[in-house]
Structures are given as C-alpha cells and as structure tokens.
Amino acid sequence: MMTKPGEQFVIRRNALAMIRNAFKENGIESAVPTVQVAGDRDAEVDAAVARYAAHVRAGAEPAA
Fold first, then answer.
1. Hey, which of 20, 51, 53, 59 has its CA 20 to 30 A from 44?
2. 5-53 per-position pLDDT tens digit
C-alpha cells in the first residue's frame, strides 16, 4: 500500500485500533510483560529487599 508522506502513521494507528477492538470483542487478551526471578534467597536478602522497598515507597534514598 502506498501512502503520502506522514500518512503511514495515521493508517498504522487506525489499523492497530481495529485489531485491538477485534481482539476485545472476541475476548482475546494481550500479553503483559512480566519478569520472574527464581533462585535460592536467604532471610538476609529478603530483609534487604524489604528495607529498600520501604525506602522507595517513602521517597527516601537508601543508605549505602
């Protein structure tokens, strides 16, 4: 398909919207990016992660 310069973005946006709507109408869900980390962790590592998460939620910089 040939388009005028700059029109390809409008056509792409419309095509993706049509695909998204068709998926929604047919109950098809898109994949969501996730990260799963596995491995042996000890209590000290879990505690450090919890402390860091608490600092991040509080908006503070973690101590080194």
1. 59
2. 889 999 999 999 999 999 999 999 988 888 777 777 788 888 888 898 8
The rounded Cα 51 to chain-centroid distance in angstroms is 24
Between CA 18 and CA 53 the distance in angstroms is 40
Q: How far apart are CA 58 and CA 40, in angstroms?
A: 28
pTM: 0.46
Nearest alpha-carbon partner for 21 in 31, 30, 32, 9? 30
What is the DSSP code (8-state) at residue 25? H
- Sign of the Cα torsion 47, 49, 53, 56 reads positive
